[in-house]
Amino acid sequence: MRWSVFFTVFGFLIIFGYAAVKWAGFSYTPNIDAQARLLEGQTLERGDGQPASIAAFQGRPKVVLFGYMSCPDVCPTSLAYMARELDQLGADRHLIQPLFISVDPGRDRGSRLTDYTQHFGKDIVGLTGDEDALKGLTKAMGAFFELGPKDADSGGYLVNHSASFYILDQESRLIATLAPPHEKGALAGLMAKAIRARSSI
Amino acid sequence: MKNGYFKSFPSCFGTMLALSLTAVPCLAREGKAPPLKVASKQDPGPSHSPSKLQVSDAWVRLPPPGSQMVAVYLTITNSGSTLAQLTGVQVDGAMSSDLHETSVDQAGVSSMRMISSLDIPPGEAKSLSPGGLHVMVMGLNRHLREGDQLGVSLHFKDRPALQISAVVKP
Questions:
Q1: Most exposed residue of A102, A201, B54, B142, measured as fewest CB within 10 angstroms of its CB?
Q2: How many Å lie between the alpha carbon of A119 and the closest alpha carbon of chain B?
């Protein structure tokens, strides 16, 4: 009977200790770097069909948004928000690379993707890729996407996807995420921090 | 008794945790209630119908090039004494339009589901706005530019339909 007390307390201490270590932010640097390498290793493509990867944007921090072009509400809203936040950075906006990654290559491949992202900002690069590359990329960032069932009549489908912004540093390490609701100035603040961190190295 | 208490403590705690987790989706839903909006006086052509429903702030987000989907947002205020139920929306020149609701779960994943009917209780307003309720319009037969007006018909249960005009904004 005394053992049950012991195990409950011991178990609680283990869980509490683990949570405390996680909260304090002790994480192995190799993990972050491994994730960054996984991220950079995914071959994507630009709207003009040229292969690309996150690695191509090394040397600058990046702000990533996942979505798809047939999204009527969240994606245009988030892209419009990102555009306004980039405006807030003023001249510094060229020090960070905004990326919109479509998780719907079936419909979003090609120059349409470039036209779509450029509508919100000339410096926003649109990328997409094969399902494997997208799965690898989203997994490395802690993001998620899922294509819904096709409508029998129209052939259309919805896509569930993470609606957060992901900030990567110049080495493609994930340093911040911004989940909805997206407050005015919040993304600009994170982007400014990422830019400052780069210049201090 | 003391021994018995500790024996059942883990199961008590586990049950408590499980019960509190079921409350989370309910709490998440609570936070999603759209704010009460008062009908603005400057909106283009508000409809004063005998059913005491007012539509205001109707706008269409300027669709980016290549986008087949368009979103329409608006606010419906029910200043009457009976429940109003929005059952359908028709947009001029569109193949189909349905009411949808965006929601973001605890993991930050957004999804949309179609809403077949929207209740607007007496004395309340329901706001269709970015990130929440919206009219999803598919297969619009024309190219929209900023400043264009788009005709929208709102259909209600046991009430006459309302015809309004939504302005295209970026």
A1: A201
A2: 6
**In angstroms, what separates the C-alpha of A80 from chain B's closest C-alpha?**
8
Distance from CA of A151 to the nearest CA of B (A): 13
Interface of A with B in 91-120 (CB under 8 A): 112-113, 115-116, 119-120
Q: Are B95 and B33 in contact (CB under 8 A)?
A: no
Q: What are phi and psi of A32, to 5 degrees?
A: -65, -40
With beta carbons under 8 A apart, name residues in chain A contacting B67.
69-70, 72, 76, 116
ipTM score assigned to the predicted complex: 0.78
Question: Residue B134 in contact with residue B71, Cβ under 8 Å?
Answer: yes
Query: Residue A20: what are its φ and ψ, rounded to 5°?
Result: -65, -45
Q: Which of B10, B64, B110 sits opposite A74 (nearest CB)?
A: B110
Q: What is the pLDDT of residues A143-169, one digit of tens each?
A: 999 999 998 888 889 999 999 999 999
pLDDT for the residue B160: 94
The residues facing B20 across adjacent strands are none
Q: What stretches in chain A show pLDDT beneath 70?
A: 1, 22-30, 199-201
Longest CA span, chain B: 77
Residues 6+ apart with CB under 8 A from A61: A95, A96, A97, A167, A168, A169, A170, A175, A191, A194, A195, A197, A198
Radius of gyration of chain B (CA): 21
Q: Which of A4, A116, A177 sits opposite B6 (nearest CB)?
A: A4
Check the CA dihedral A170-A126-A157-B127 and report its sign. Answer: positive
End-to-end CA distance of chain A: 58
Q: Please answer yes or no on whether B104 and A179 come within 8 Å at the CB atom.
A: yes
| pTM across the whole model | 0.77
Contact A69 B7 (CB under 8 A): no
